[in-house]
Amino acid sequence: MAEPKENVLMEKIVSLCKRRGFVFQSSEIYGGINGFWDYGPLGAELKRNVKELWWNSMTRLRDDVVGLEATIIMAPQIWKASGHVETFADMMRECPMTRKRVRTDQVEPQSGSVVKFTGAVSNPKPEVHDDYLTTIETSASSFSNAANNREAINNCVKSVVSVKHSGASDLDERVEEETGIFWANHCTHASTEFSILLPAGKPVESAKKSAISFYQSLGVENPVLLGGVTEKVEDSTDFHPESGVKLGPSRPFNLMLQTYVGPIQSEENIAYLRPETAQAIFAQFKNVHETSRQKVPFGIAQVGKAFRNEVTPRNFTFRSREFEQMELEFFIKPDEAVEAIHGNVAVPTAPGHPGEPQPNWGWQMWHQYWVEERVRFYEGIGLSRATLGFHIQTPEELAHYARATTDILFKFPFSKVDEQGEVKGDELEGVAARSDFDLSQHERHSGKAMGVFDEDLRTAWGKLAPEKQKELRQRYYEARKKYLTKTAREGDSPEKIEKEAQEDADGLAKGQYIPHVIEPSAGVDRLILALLANAFTETTSTDEKGKSEVRTVMKFHPRVAPVKVGVFPLLKNKPELVAKAKEVFQLLRGHMLAFYDETGAIGRRYARQDEAGTPFGVTIDFDTLGEKPELLNTVTVRHRDDGAQERIPISELPGWLLARVK
Amino acid sequence: MAEPKENVLMEKIVSLCKRRGFVFQSSEIYGGINGFWDYGPLGAELKRNVKELWWNSMTRLRDDVVGLEATIIMAPQIWKASGHVETFADMMRECPMTRKRVRTDQVEPQSGSVVKFTGAVSNPKPEVHDDYLTTIETSASSFSNAANNREAINNCVKSVVSVKHSGASDLDERVEEETGIFWANHCTHASTEFSILLPAGKPVESAKKSAISFYQSLGVENPVLLGGVTEKVEDSTDFHPESGVKLGPSRPFNLMLQTYVGPIQSEENIAYLRPETAQAIFAQFKNVHETSRQKVPFGIAQVGKAFRNEVTPRNFTFRSREFEQMELEFFIKPDEAVEAIHGNVAVPTAPGHPGEPQPNWGWQMWHQYWVEERVRFYEGIGLSRATLGFHIQTPEELAHYARATTDILFKFPFSKVDEQGEVKGDELEGVAARSDFDLSQHERHSGKAMGVFDEDLRTAWGKLAPEKQKELRQRYYEARKKYLTKTAREGDSPEKIEKEAQEDADGLAKGQYIPHVIEPSAGVDRLILALLANAFTETTSTDEKGKSEVRTVMKFHPRVAPVKVGVFPLLKNKPELVAKAKEVFQLLRGHMLAFYDETGAIGRRYARQDEAGTPFGVTIDFDTLGEKPELLNTVTVRHRDDGAQERIPISELPGWLLARVK
After folding, report:
1. Is the separation of the CB atoms in B33 and A74 below 8 Å?
2. Does A35 touch chain B (CB under 8 A)?
3. What are residue A465's phi and psi, to 5 degrees?
4. B270-273 vs B258-260, strand pairing mode
């Protein structure tokens, strides 16, 4: 059970983040807002570096990927086509009293006494009694005393009815019937069950009080409670953690934040804050394809904010309501097209990176390729393979349109230990093979063709043996039919689906298809948190007087470190040192983020930069000025991680540093 | 009247943006969403470059500015403190029929015939007549024929009343009274005016139809219209441009997009999408100040999305509903503190850039400094001073807390020509001197101290002559009192304000104050549009056959150009040329965004890159391979803007290009 230790570590990280300006709680001076986090000066630089590295490696340094920057608010039809309006939901249960919701799978088990009410009826108002009493011709005075007692009213009604119908053979039935009519006409009632877990030591009265206010909220005036039996429960997940009230049934709760765009708050003006950046890429696929001179296989990359109304944001910035994504949608030919053109489809034969993309790769090769590309990216910014984990989604976990998804995990301090005592990690990124689902959905919902024409395929198809043509056509037809059937909408008859699938298969022979897609989708904030956790190191140093001090060193990879180099004159009160240090600082800052510091002892300044994660420290001392002539115009470069120092000429400094921080 | 020409130019720019992938309409395949625009591959790079240049020049290359990256959704209290919940509104008028709103100042004048109704009454239902007729004891048959005619009913009532009260001296009054009682009891009516402008050629019937459906919507069943007079109007701005219905009164309409965060859609969970990035900086001022080791004067910079529910988004990306801002809040000492420390306050004496910041600068110097710094920034990315304009806000235009605001304008193709025949331009950026209003507001609303302690001030204050202390204290006191009075809330009595202002003034003597702020606030999307408009150039070239062609050249400054260099083998079918060209491409792409193109004639490839705005083209020809030995390993570099070519050794190419694109 490593939990307590892990929490201590998370607390230390959170505390450092606030102390050094990496991450602040959003709106902190107003008590914060749950699930929202701001990046302070160091955090903002760290995040910029990560996004810039992703963008460079995913688009600028690739021939086959271009960028996109789409809006957060898009036409709501996009989220209908994507399925988000209907199915992007958590299963939730609501407390019927406070209306507060909890995620069904996140209710902590509770034990104790439960008081269960079966319903409530309102006591009738005096004027109603009068009315009724006149009707049943009995004395008003004897009845009104009983006004607050249902039992008494029932008896009264019964006795009157007995008199009216005395001797009738169906007397009991008549009594029951007329009593029922009385209550139906003159009282409100609710037969909704209300159960509440009694906190230890609380009297049953408190449960009654809650029940009364609950039934009042249902419109039962002056309610008389029915039921009220107490029973024991053990480890039940049926009760709200705060109110103790028995939860309603599990229902889907949409996670998209909703707003209205335009001057009227009407149904037609509903818009959503995107819950992912991916859909914008699909919606703009044709525009990008037509303007970028790219041919399938190629990708479109985007970095941007997304929003999810998470019910229980947690684990610091790991699960927040506003977050940033870095997503690539990489469009590939369907395997049938690859086989038509190249005669075969290459499939993975060994684990690891499959090397440079080849034209005969099928979707499985591309999927493996992107998983491994992404792992290389993480390794390149300091997350070694040992800190990562993988989760290959099981058929049950996969979305219905997905063919495979591999989650790349990082072993966070809060990641759980499994039965084997191992930490598997939590998701940094998912790499999904999404078939042609997304573009197909947008084609059907928008009525705009999303397919591409592939000259190579058309040419190759003509040269195929008829047998091969038939086989490939059949496979493509089956796949399309399966998609069309699974996503059938009202009015999509089997005949219509059959016809469309046949048309799609005919298109293939003409060089037309809807591209398939591999989606490496990463969360920026999670990655930042992983980098913070990975960098966090405590060292204990003991000074000459034997006094030991625990210091924090943030061992960021130089590529992501917010500040690349600290520049320090050895002493503040020596103008020559200060002037030279400022000269070096000016020389470096054009190339990278540099920080000049002259305040305090040099050790103190090193320590401050260690805590900020600055990988290199440059000190200008008297040797720099030529005290030892052979060291003139050289500086001491100190390495953050081991404190090692080396002497480097100022003229070589920019190149030396750039080679290490780029 | 240059309008038609200008619109043609805007159309060309919009068309190029779509054709070349600079800007697409958001959600285009679904018919778009008004006021939202996506950036395609070239646009995304252009925007990234601009944001990166701003960030570098505003934070990384300055000692006195640090960055922040805050969330779009923040605690709603922030927008109460900032005044946005109450006053961030456009004056709007609503069509009472369609509920569609228009901005009061943007209704186009219309002329024509107006049909004016004064109200409507419902024809009573038959059972009501029966009821009434029974009551007034007259024959039911004679009355029901008149059921559809108010006049007839009135007469009928009158005659009955006459009979009942025949000979009474107050007969007329009684008739009127009983008639009134009849209508009040048995009919619904509406006395709301409804006027509608008749489109030319439309019959009055159409106006009646609209009026009937309008009064029905007010709950008048089966309405009989009252009034119906037709009159002429000239150039009236009182009618809705679409429905023609007379608009309701001008009312404020809040421009913030609203959503709910958390599991319940209740008042307490309302949140807003930020309408500006500035407030996050104020809300995090203390956190940043405490963690960044900065002292006033210093600034906090942020780039990020903001949202405004503009009623009429227009001028392409100029006024959109989702946009991006680059904002700096630069915090300075109040003038009283500057004077206490330095003995005087420097004020502007000449136009232009005042040079390096000095410790004795007052707010006016800082304001001038930031206006000029920002102009330098624009000049540095290709917007010459001649393309810019300035608008110094008049006292009437200034926000009540602002001391001065200078808007930096750009002469867009849609910018209006003024009476003097000059184009003034539209706002790119506002540089505002906002006093200590923002931090003061957050201090009062959050209850958290937002002031700073200034050691220099405390030390200096002790050495001031008592007369000087008194004078400065008095000035500071007056300013604080003015702020506290203007923003007084319920319960802020004059005594309380007096006391607080005195305390604030006492604080100054102890080295405490709330910093003032200068805010250069720029719109990214507007700047991108300015860069596109500024770069857009058409050239007509005539080939040997005398055929002339109009070509577009996007003359972006190399710093912002999406692609920095195109690399072309002279011929595609010469493997040596292709191999060498790919080698050069690999050499360059590590340093800058490069584009390799081997398809089509070299002139065609140049033209494509001219249209994308690529400033340099590198061609690998046979001389590169050594056909002329003295030119071995040199390439032709072509300049986009004038087509000039020069020969440069490959080894010098990266440095040569970097010096021009950085």
Report:
1. yes
2. yes
3. -65, 145
4. antiparallel
Question: Of the candidates B31, B36, B38, which has its C-beta nearest A284's C-beta?
Answer: B38
A66 vs B126 pLDDT, higher one:
A66
B311 touches chain A (CB under 8 A): yes
pLDDT at A142: 36
Indicate the residue of B44, B77, B92 with minimum beta-carbon distance to A69.
Answer: B44
Tell me how far apart the alpha carbons of residues B62 and B65 are, in angstroms, rounded to a whole number: 6
Tokens matching residue A132: 């009724």
Cα separation, A556 vs A558, whole angstroms: 6
Give the whole-angstrom CA distance, residue A426 versus residue A412.
7
8 Å CB contact between A368 and A331 = no
> What are residue B125's phi and psi, to 5 degrees?
-80, 150
Q: Which residue has the tokens 């004897």?
A: A142
The shortest C-alpha distance from B98 to chain A (Å) reads: 10
Instruction: Report the SS3 class of residue B442.
Output: helix
| Residue B555 near residue B314 (C-beta atoms within 8 A) | no
CA distance A3 to B601: 67
Which helix (H) or strand (E) segment holds residue A519: the answer is strand A516-523
The type of residue at A439 is L
Cα distance between residue B379 and residue B373, in whole Å? 10
- CA distances, B296 to each of B293, B455, B476, B543 (Å): 10, 11, 18, 63
Average pLDDT over chain A, rounded to an integer: 89
Q: For strand A194-198 and strand A110-122, is the pairing parallel, antiparallel, or unpaired?
A: antiparallel
Q: Which of A101, A261, A443, A446 to mutate to test the interface with B (most CBs of B within 10 A)?
A: A261
Best probe of the B interface among A38, A42, A63, A563, by most B CBs < 10 A, is A38
> How far out from the chain centre does Cα A64 lie?
28
CA angle (B34 as vertex; B29, B40 as ends), nearest 5: 55
> Hey, is B441 helix, strand or coil?
helix
What pLDDT is attached to residue A144? Answer: 36
Strand pairing class (A645-649; B23-25): unpaired
ipTM associated with this complex = 0.84
The Cβ of residue A399 has, within 10 Å, a number of other Cβ atoms equal to 14
Q: How far apart, in whole angstroms, are the C-alpha atoms of residue A391 and residue A393?
A: 6
Enter the DSSP assignment of B386. Answer: G
The answer to whether the CB atoms of A26 and B74 lie below 8 A apart is yes
Distance from CA of B277 to the nearest CA of A (A): 12
Q: Rounded to whole angstroms, how far apart are CA atoms A38 and A41?
A: 10
- Which residue has 């293939």 as its token pair? A508
- The string of pLDDT tens digits covering residues B242-269 is 889 999 988 888 899 999 998 777 788 8
Cβ of residue B89 closer than 8 Å to a chain A Cβ: no
Cβ-proximal residues to B12 (8 Å cutoff; 6+ apart), any chain: B536, B538, B552
Residues A14-29: pLDDT tens digits?
A: 999 999 999 999 999 9
The answer on pLDDT for A147 being more than 80 is no
Could you tell me if B323 and B304 are in contact, meaning their C-beta atoms sit under 8 angstroms apart? no
Q: For residue B268, how far is the Cα from the chain centroid?
A: 27
DSSP run (H or E) holding B280: helix B278-283
User: What are the strands of the beta sheet with B388-392, ordered from one edge?
Assistant: B65-67, B298-307, B322-332, B516-523, B426-433, B404-410, B388-392
- In angstroms, the CA B69 to CA B532 distance is 27
Q: With the C-alpha atoms ordered B127, B128, B133, B135, is the resulting torsion angle positive or negative?
A: positive
CB-based contact B637:B618 (threshold 8 Å) = yes
Peptide bond into A199 cis (omega under 30): no
Among A159-173, B46-60, B121-135, which stretch is predicted with the lowest mean pLDDT? Answer: B121-135
Assess contact for B415 and B424: CB atoms under 8 A.
Answer: yes
- In the numeric block, the tokens 């080939």 are attached to B543
Helices (H), A114-203: 126-135, 140-144, 150-164, 171-186
